[in-house]
Structure formats: C-alpha cells, structure tokens
Amino acid sequence: MKLLIVPAIILAICSNVAFADNFRCPNGSIVSSGDSISEVMVKCDPPTNQIKRTDSDETVRGRVRYIEVEEWTYNEGPNTLVHYLMFRNGVLTEVKTGTFGR
What pTM, to 2 d.p., does this model score? Predict the structure, then answer.
C-alpha cells in the first residue's frame, strides 16, 4: 500500500508545474508567454487585427491600477484555426485558439 502512495504524491506535485503558452507564428517562429511585445513583433509576421484597451485591476491593498492590454489576432483563412495573443503591460500572457478562420 505504501508503494502506491509515494508515486501518487510525486505525480500530484509534478502536475502543478507551470507551463508556458506557445504560438507558432505564420512564418514558423515560436513565441511563448513571458516574451515581450517587441520580441513577438520581431519573430512573427504582423497580426491580422490588433485591439488596444486599458483594463483596471484591484490590488491586494484595494488600490486600482490600470493595465495596458493588447490583443493580436492571427486569422490565416478557412483552413487554419484563429489564434489570439493577449499582451498585458507589453508582455505576452495568454494564447487562445479559436475556431477556423474566414
């Protein structure tokens, strides 16, 4: 019984390891969460669409801080999936995959 508990604990610990969102740019380069917006600009082709906005976020002490958010869309047509790259304060934080493009 003890032999089964140890591997289960190790597996539980290892499953909480963080991972980065990755995106393969249309030109073949790979970018990851944590890359700066300027790194992504150099590595990738220009996005199909860009949206810029400012979001508010409440800190632990109850203060409000404002964050620059930029969302890039890569839509390469009906035979590939649309990808959304989310930047917060100039850093890639999230990559989402949508449905097939148009």
Answer: 0.76
